[in-house]
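Milestone M4 deliverable, item 7.
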Amino acid sequence: MQNEIQALSYMAKNDPAVIAGLLLVGSSSVLYVHVQLKMVRAGYKTSFDVLRGPLSAKGLETPRQYLKVRAKEGWSPWPIYLFLPCMLAGIGLLVFGLFRL
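Output delivered:
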């Protein structure tokens, strides 16, 4: 147990880009699940096609539908506005940090 803690603390001190990348990717997935749950609870059909390819034709169907519905339901648009930048920045930081190891 002590060796794992030492390895994690060494990585956090010497290469925080990996930790930041993992946190950003995790936060983007939390935002997307939040949007999915809101849409399902409001009675709208959602799609997980964004996980196959967020920039594909059907990949942004649920975020687009959320932005249409949000004004009627009184929801904030920020989960959608932050989803894609968090995911792209997280992947970029993760790749950068792993190549630096």
